[in-house]
Amino acid sequence: MATLVELRNTSKTFGTGWFSRKTVALRDFSMAVDEDEPTITALVGESGSGKTTIARLILGLIPPTTGEVLYRDKPLLELSRTERQQFRRDVQVIFQDPFEVYNPFYKVDHALHLPVRKAGLASSRDEAVEVIEGTLRQVGLNPRDTLGRYPHQLSGGQRQRVMVARALLLSPKLIVADEPVSMVDASLRATILENLRQLNTEFGISIIYITHDLTTAYEISEKIVVLYRGVIAEQGDVVPVVQEPEHPYTQLLIGSIPMPDPDQKWQQGLEVVAPSTDATAETMTADYAGCQFADRCPHAMEMCSESPPLYQTASNRVVSCHLYREEAAA
Ligand SMILES: Nc1ncnc2c1ncn2[C@@H]1O[C@H](COP(=O)(O)OP(=O)(O)OP(=O)(O)O)[C@@H](O)[C@H]1O
Ligand SMILES: [Mg+2]
After folding, report:
1. Nearby residues for ligand 2 (ion, Cβ within 5 Å)
2. DSSP letter at 296?
3. Residue from 93, 243, 61, 269 nearest 164 by CA
4. What is the residue with the minimal CA distance to atom 26 of ligand 1?
5. How many CB atoms lie within 10 A of CB 93?
6. Which numbered ligand comes closest to the C-alpha of 51?
7. How far is the CA of 126 from the centre of ligand 1 (A)?
8. How remote is the C-alpha of 158 from its chain's centroid?
9. Which atom of ligand 1 is nearest to the CA of 50?
10. Domain ranges of the chain
């Protein structure tokens, strides 16, 4: 099994200057994306739980404070020029609002020609157009209705698909999709999720799907990582985690959420949000070394003042909660 990208025991702390407030965005987080088995993994957690931080680490946009980010088992910082170029092609991102990445003064063609040129995918202008038109068709767009237009002349769904086409041009092995559906209406949400699934099944691309929304995470992914304040609460195959959650946090989340109705796909978003009465962010300091969930947990006990490790409770499953220490030892 070859590992494409791996975060190994990474932590990220922001604001380490003298006067800035310290925020621990991520604590001792590990995750690996396998190259041979393209999977969709959902990263789920409430606002501020560290999801985008993980995305930025994986993309090499920020360095970890501790731990390592590896591409094919090699730290990003040690990649040669060619390896770095390959990394840039292998790992692509789809942003929440594709409108933001377009320059409104350029036709959408620009956003597509740029990667073709940068990656040297074509030797002539005609060849570039051919490559681009082919990719647009692959994502269900008619090149004649798409090229030659400005971003605002396309619908939200078309803009999203152009983004997908843009990512696809470079034949990536992994696409990180950070909240791709949070700002869109139900029908566009379904289209985008369908696109992500297609990227996975037809093109063999792994997807890291970042979301607040447990319903779509359940619908679309095979694996799930539930984050709570920069820590993995639990992680495993999506069906057992959602149907029989082990961590008290996941149990609370899922208990407050009706199970998705399989006939009503992607219609209602079930948002993971922090309760508005939550004063804990203030009371718990960045350096608190115990379980991050202890102050909200109905099962909190004395030993929760020590941070729980990830207990393995099944072959594909871990949970960071002391309730499982005996089960895991057995
Ligand atoms: N550049 C930064 N400087 C300081 N703090 C930061 C920075 N980026 C993120 N943070 C903090 O790190 C924590 C995690 O942020 P992150 O953006 O990863 O959360 P998220 O899970 O993506 O949230 P959301 O669902 O709102 O997008 C937050 O407390 C955030 O305020
Ligand atoms: Mg985010």
Report:
1. 51-52
2. G
3. 93
4. 47
5. 20
6. 1
7. 43
8. 22
9. 18
10. 3-274
